């Protein structure tokens, strides 16, 4: 109850009015008549509406919109719900932060705003088409019916939650007299780097998309009409993601059944979805375990990477690391994510230090594409604040 009282002592709502006009010129240039609030939620909302307008309208298009804070079941700020009118048609959109950055949860261009409670209520997003609100100590359906304790617990088990506080940042400084990279392997000079698609809890489809783009280098029909990167001499650089690549993520989201049995994707769902995707295009996919007696085997992981196989890794928690090297010291910034997470590793690196006190220390890193916006690519120290539940070398043939 103290948590709720503390919450209620804060401002419960914030409304920003957005007024703009889209004018489509002959070249489909978009002119915004009035300046918008330029936060990342608004940019995602406007980009989504612009795409819809481009596909469905010609001439002048009038959009009027308001946004209101949306909360999760723990009454943490979770994103925004937009109530808009597009050329006299009502619609609404919900953009949430369940993984540390905004993602479009849903948008409807011919539907009424789901809330009718007054401005003192806290609007809550559970999952697609399911909203409730909190007011004066109770949870309510949007119809105004009070939820029972049993109903509340049921909704808590299926609800999405804010990702805004899921990242813990810690810094460590290593002072050394010598530093040697004793082993290193990279599967490319830059890696596939999808970190978001238009769905929430989608880290598994995102990881799958990065794997598909990686293997498209060797099997061009994995992604139709697409060049995954460029080779310069003996170096290979993967391209930044575009709509063709994110469409792969959308297909994998459906094939994996993400969010159909609770939030996220199970390991079996991931494998089945990847198998279906590859099979539809005439390829096989296989998985070589990097586990030994239930524990992650770093040596097995390195063996798979040495064979040219990227890894898919299932974790909870996972800690990413950024290494800043100085003279006689390395500063390591750790980013810890407490949520279940799926990511891909494309390389490894072992660093052996002789410390200033004469002792030695060896750090074992996987070079990863995290699939998380706040820490996109870098390293994961497999022995620091990371629990790897399962991991596989992934081979397409």
Describe the structure.
The protein has 397 residues and is of the alpha+beta class. It has 2 domains: 2-158, no CATH class; 167-396, Cathepsin B, Chain A (Alpha-Beta Complex). It is 21% helix and 42% strand. The chain has 7 helices and 22 strands. The protein has helices at residues 2-8, 40-56, 149-158, 203-216, 243-256, 267-280, 298-306, and strands at 16-24, 30-32, 60-71, 77-86, 89-96, 103-108, 122-127, 130-135, 138-141, 167-186, 229-232, 235-238, 285-289, 291-292, 295-296, 311-315, 318-326, 329-337, 341-355, 360-372, 375-381, 388-396. Strands 10, 13, 16, 17, 18, 19, 20, 21 and 22 form a 9-stranded antiparallel beta sheet that branches. Strand 11 and strand 12 (235-238) form a beta hairpin. The longest helix has 17 residues, at 40-56.
CATH-scheme architecture of the largest domain: Alpha-Beta Complex
Report, as a whole number of angstroms, the end-to-end distance: 56 Å
How large is the share of residues in beta strands? Answer: 35-45%
Using the coordinates above, name the CATH class of the largest domain: Alpha Beta
- What is the CA-atom radius of gyration, in angstroms? 24 Å
Oligomer: single chain
The total number of structural domains is 2
SSE order: HEEHEEEEEEEHEHEEHHEEEHEEEEEEE
Helix content: 10-25%
**pLDDT averaged over residues:** 85
| CATH superfamily label of the largest domain | Cysteine proteinases
Instruction: Tell me the total number of β-strands.
Output: 22
Q: Structural class, from helix and strand content?
A: alpha+beta
As residue ranges, the low-confidence spans are 1-36
């Amino acid at each position: 109850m103290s948590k709720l009282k503390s919450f209620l002592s804060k401002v419960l709502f914030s409304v920003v009015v957005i007024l703009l006009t889209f004018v489509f010129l002959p070249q489909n240039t978009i002119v915004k008549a009035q300046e918008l609030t330029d936060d990342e939620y608004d940019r995602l909302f406007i980009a989504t509406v612009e795409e819809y307008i481009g596909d469905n309208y010609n001439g002048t298009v009038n959009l009027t919109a308001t946004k209101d804070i949306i909360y999760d079941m723990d009454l943490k700020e979770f994103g925004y719900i937009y109530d808009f009118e597009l050329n006299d048609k009502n619609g609404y959109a919900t953009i949430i932060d369940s993984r540390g950055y905004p993602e479009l949860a849903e948008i409807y261009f011919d539907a009424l705003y789901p809330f009718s409670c007054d401005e003192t209520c806290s609007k809550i997003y559970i999952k697609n088409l399911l909203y409730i609100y909190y007011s004066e100590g109770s949870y309510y359906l949007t119809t105004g019916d009070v939820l029972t304790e049993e109903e509340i617990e049921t909704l808590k088990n299926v609800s999405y939650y804010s990702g805004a506080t899921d990242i813990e940042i810690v810094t460590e400084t290593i002072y050394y007299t010598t530093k040697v990279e004793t082993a290193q392997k990279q599967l490319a000079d830059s890696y596939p780097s999808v970190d978001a698609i238009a769905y929430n809890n989608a880290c598994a489809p995102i990881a799958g998309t990065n794997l598909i783009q990686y293997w498209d280098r060797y099997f061009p029909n994995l992604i139709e009409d697409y060049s995954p990167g460029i080779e310069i001499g003996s170096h290979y650089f993967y391209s930044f993601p575009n709509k063709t690549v994110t469409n792969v993520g959308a297909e994998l989201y459906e094939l994996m059944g993400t969010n159909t049995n609770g939030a996220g994707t199970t390991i079996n769902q991931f494998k089945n979805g990847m198998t279906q995707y590859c099979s539809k295009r005439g390829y096989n996919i296989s998985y070589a375990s990097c586990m030994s007696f239930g524990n992650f085997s770093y040596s097995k992981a390195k063996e798979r990477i040495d064979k040219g196989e990227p890894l898919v890794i299932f974790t909870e928690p996972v800690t990413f690391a950024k290494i800043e090297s100085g003279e006689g010291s390395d500063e390591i910034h750790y980013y810890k994510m407490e949520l279940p997470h799926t990511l891909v590793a494309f390389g490894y690196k072992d660093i052996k230090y002789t410390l200033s006190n004469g002792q030695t220390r060896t750090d074992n890193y996987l070079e990863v594409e995290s699939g998380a916006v706040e820490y996109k690519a870098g390293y994961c120290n497999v022995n620091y604040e990371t629990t790897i539940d399962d991991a596989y070398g992934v081979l397409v043939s």
